[in-house]
Write a structure and sequence with these properties.
- The complex is a heterodimer of chains A (about 700) and B (about 120).
- Chain A has about 700 residues and is an alpha+beta fold.
- Helices cover about 30% and strands about 20% of the residues of chain A.
- Among the domains of chain A are: about 250 residues, no CATH class; about 190 residues, no CATH class.
- Chain A is built from 18 helices and 20 strands.
- In chain A, helix 8 packs across helix 9.
- The longest helix of chain A has 29 residues.
- Chain B has one domain.
- Chain B is built from one helix and eight strands, in the order E-E-E-E-E-E-E-E-H.
- In chain B, a hairpin with a 5-residue loop joins strand 3 and strand 4.
- Classes of the chains: A alpha+beta (about 700), B mainly beta (about 120).
- At the A-B interface, helix 1, strand 8, strand 9, strand 10 and helix 14 of A face strand 5, strand 6, strand 7, strand 8 and helix 1 of B.
- Strand 8 of chain A pairs antiparallel with strand 8 of chain B, so a sheet runs across the interface.
- Bound molecules: zinc ion.
- Zinc ion binds next to loops of chain B.
Chain lengths: ~700, ~120
């Protein structure tokens, strides 16, 4: 696997690393899921021989334009909250099922859809009871068959040219309600997959370009928002047809061999470009460790997700080993394929930035994800929030990638990770347009970015899984919600501090009208955080759920009072009467009535660099923009602001920073002395119940000062 | 003396294979070992950095110190914070950067070169 890997890694006996931790099951073949690019076909070979570099470049841009147009079509046609705001993807695949052109949006959707296309090709195409024909429409949402979770629903359509299968088009996204016990899909209390709604592996739902009404009725009848579901499914089929027609137009123009061969050439070029970039980087082993605070059996428990990266020559191995075991007590269980696909979000957007995003980029990378574990779990468990575990891998990789890229020509991608402290409010009820709706709002797309090596992270920048997403048109959004959004704003001390600070999330504060509504929520990072800083920058803070029940908000509004309802002001001054509940993010559905407040944001990014190197003027800017408190300016940044003038006292700031440096030298201990005291400590047993052996989940008795050294 | 920038705050002096502070030049020890062995290390209660917000002791936008501590690594000479880790109390530290020094030296023309390595995983 490489000399560094062979010299330093040791995989544990009896555990699975290179494939999903479950076997073949209906509609699902893990062997197909774990494959890389399929072999080159004869048609592709003939086509490639006819192409110049310029032809390939032109086709790359053409196919990109096609999938981006499809993205706009789908977002414009859909009435699904999360799709409108970009939690979706459109793509074109080779006939053998490898994604070639991937629209901006959620890259990892596309990196997963290959599994179901390959399944249909291998098992259904030549099955006389199914077959494969021009005009077929397929649907799938089964997380075991290669999907994310039951709430992410996809459609696919084969593209035929003169009777020959030449490509596949896919389109889909986060649909929301899946018929689970929890309106909106996410069931924070699920322990098996059977509590997460319907699971449909690759299923033909239409023929000759028409949806079958009986199947549509079955699917729409299985969820709480049949109108939204059916409208969205139809908008997907329309989008698939756009993809198909545009591709066929290119084939008419250029000929089938150059287009099909060109699609293969694009994959090969991406792989070559990825390998060329890897060759520019220093070889070595890089490590990062992330933790989760998952609700396990009625109380929060600690779990561990470490990532080790072996970079050698033009290849890399991502090793996720020493992971906490499966606990079976909640839906935070990921799969091998979800971990692999999730990393595309970082790899495509940051690490390989500038290269054409497709399956070729991941070809030089080998993924070893230990299972059974919370990162690569078995089939019967609940998987609905497995993205929280795969995101820990992604954020660990983000830190490692930044350390690897810093000394390379690609320093521009060095940045602390985008916030992934999920606390997502899920609504259900009747909206102002009079139909039932259940989902999350587009404000979920506005979490904070990490600090960069040369600038602050952006606030409310985008969605973790799709940095290019949008928060939608606010007034249109509000009409589609069953509740009222009272405020969308940035809050104080809600990001990671550093020489360049992280960005803050948009915090949304809502109540509901006379019809009432239902609210649930899911997430973790309530007592800890998943948002590391970089190079000495601090983490973004944890974000628990904030609900204030039975407030006197409407009485105050009726009296004509001005009410400052920022989350920070509400929590610190408690000017509204009511029952203040701060709790873990994962909560079952509750009825909300007028005056009940729910506040949520998706967390702030970590900072970059030492806080004492932040320019005092930037600290003053944060203060003036209400992003930090005066206490942070003084105690963390060591910047003294004259209360009379509101200006920086330079001499006092210099003294303050010198004092902080002296304190560091006084309180910092040499390695051996530090380790003597540190190694005697341990978290309380109550939170380690599902962690595995302490401190190395798979290696009882481990006592080395550094983790992950198994040889 | 050939100094190679590795991170914001760390250089490697290639010939002698030493970690060095990028800001002040302080020596952190052998580059084949974790640089953290040459740093000053301080454990902190996370509430000193992330000030708790609101009325709850359990959930307050800070880290619960029973769950997580901040471990800060400083240059022993200039006191710059080179990096930090958020770890459960007592959890082993992270050997974050373990470079292939032979490859790095070969790349920068610093002898001795043992042998060129092959490509990584295909
Ligand atoms: Zn120094």
């Amino acid at each position: 696997m490489g000399q560094l890997f062979d010299a330093h890694a040791r995989l544990f006996d009896g555990l699975i690393y290179e494939i999903d931790a479950y076997g073949r099951r209906p509609g699902c073949d893990p062997e197909l899921i774990s494959r890389g690019l399929e072999p080159i076909t004869d048609l592709e070979r003939r086509g490639m021989a006819q192409l110049s570099e310029v032809d390939t470049e032109l086709l790359t841009h053409k196919l990109t334009a096609i999938v981006e147009e499809a993205r706009d079509v789908y977002m414009a046609l859909s009435i699904t909250e999360s799709v409108i705001t970009g939690d979706m993807n459109c793509a074109l695949f080779t006939a053998s099922g490898d994604p070639v052109a991937v629209a901006t949006g959620i890259y990892f959707h596309t990196m997963l859809n290959n599994a179901q296309i390959k399944y249909a090709t291998k098992y259904y195409r030549n099955d006389p009871t199914v077959g494969l024909a021009d005009g077929d429409i397929y649907f799938f949402n089964d997380e075991l068959g290669g999907g994310v979770h039951a709430f992410d629903m996809f459609t696919a359509m084969p593209v035929f040219w003169k009777g020959e299968l030449v490509a596949w088009a896919t389109c889909g996204g986060h649909q929301g309600d899946s018929g689970s016990p929890t309106p909106g899909g996410f069931n924070a209390k699920a322990r098996t997959r059977y509590e997460e709604g319907i699971h449909v592996p690759m299923m033909r739902i239409g023929e000759r370009f028409r949806l079958r009404q009986d199947i549509l009725d079955f699917l729409a009848g299985s969820v709480r928002n049949p109108f939204v579901f059916a409208a969205d499914l139809k908008s997907r089929v329309a989008t698939l047809d756009v993809l198909r027609k545009r591709l066929l137009r290119e084939i008419e123009r250029r000929g089938v061999e150059p287009v099909v061969g060109g699609m293969r050439r694009i994959l090969i070029k991406s792989e070559e470009a990825a390998r060329a970039r890897l060759r520019e980087l220093t070889d070595g082993i890089f490590r990062a460790v992330m933790f989760n605070d998952d609700e396990l059996g009625g109380q929060l428990g600690l779990t561990r997700i470490p990532v080790t990266l072996f970079k050698e020559g033009d290849g890399m191995t991502v090793l996720v080993q020493g992971v906490s075991p499966e606990n079976g007590l909640g839906p935070m269980h990921s799969t091998w394929h979800l971990v692999r696909a999730s990393t595309a979000v970082y790899m495509f957007s940051y690490f390989f930035r500038g290269l054409a995003p497709n399956a070729g980029l991941l070809q030089p990378i080998r993924y070893l994800v230990e299972g059974p574990s919370i990162a690569n779990s078995r089939d019967e468990l609940a998987h609905g929030m497995g993205t929280s575990i795969s995101a820990c891998v992604v954020n660990g990789l983000h830190v490692l990638g930044s350390k690897l890229l810093f000394s390379s020509p690609h320093r521009e991608a060095v940045q602390a990770p985008h916030s992934r402290n999920i606390m997502l409010m899920i609504f259900a009820g009747e909206n102002r347009l009079g139909y039932a709706t259940a989902n999350f709002t587009g404000s979920a797309n506005a979490s904070g970015q990490g600090g960069r090596f040369d600038s602050d992270g952006e606030s409310a920048v985008g969605f973790y899984w799709g940095p290019f997403t949008d928060a939608g048109e606010t007034e249109d959004t509000d009409a589609r919600l069953p509740h009222f959004v009272l405020a969308r704003r940035l809050e104080k001390n809600y990001h990671g501090f550093g020489r360049y600070r992280g960005g803050s999330p948009l915090v949304e504060i809502s109540t509901c009208g006379h019809l009432g509504c239902f609210m649930s929520s899911w997430g973790s990072a309530d007592k800890i955080s998943h948002n590391p800083g970089l190079m000495g920058g601090y983490y973004g803070p944890p974000n628990p759920r904030v609900v204030i029940k039975n407030t006197d908000l409407f009485e105050r509004i009726e009296r004509g009072e001005e009410v400052d309802i920022s989350q920070y002001e509400l929590l610190t001054r408690r000017k509204l009467k009511g029952e203040y509940r701060l709790e873990a993010s994962g909560q079952a559905t509750q009825a909300f009535k007028p005056g009940d407040l729910m506040c949520f944001g998706l967390g702030g990014g970590g900072g970059y660099g030492d806080v004492l190197e932040r320019e005092p003027e930037r600290v003053l800017g944060d203060l003036r923009e209400n992003l930090i408190t005066a206490e942070v300016a003084l105690k963390i940044y060591g910047v003294v602001v004259d209360p009379a003038t509101g200006l920086i006292d330079s001499a006092a700031s210099t003294r303050r920073r010198a004092a902080i440096r002296r304190e560091r030298l006084r309180k910092g201990k040499p390695f051996a002395a530090f380790m003597r005291a540190w190694q005697r400590k341990k978290p309380p047993e109550a939170i380690l119940k599902y962690y595995g052996a302490w401190p190395e989940p798979r290696t009882p008795g481990y006592d080395k000062p550094f983790w992950g050294l198994y040889r | 003396m050939k100094l190679i920038r590795i991170t914001e705050y760390l250089d490697i002096e290639l010939e002698r294979e030493r970690w060095r502070c990028n800001r002040c030049g302080a020596d952190f020890g052998p580059a084949r070992e974790p640089w953290k062995k040459g740093a000053l290390i301080r454990e902190r209660d996370p509430r000193e950095i992330h000030f708790p917000i609101g009325p709850s002791k359990e959930f307050n936008f800070s880290f619960d110190p029973k769950w997580m501590r901040i471990v800060e690594f400083y240059c022993p000479k200039c006191a710059v914070m080179i990096d930090n880790e958020y770890l459960p109390p007592g959890h082993p530290l992270t050997w974050d950067i373990q470079l292939d020094l032979d490859q790095l030296k070969a790349k920068h023309g610093v002898t001795p070169v043992r042998k060129r390595r092959e490509s990584g995983p295909k």
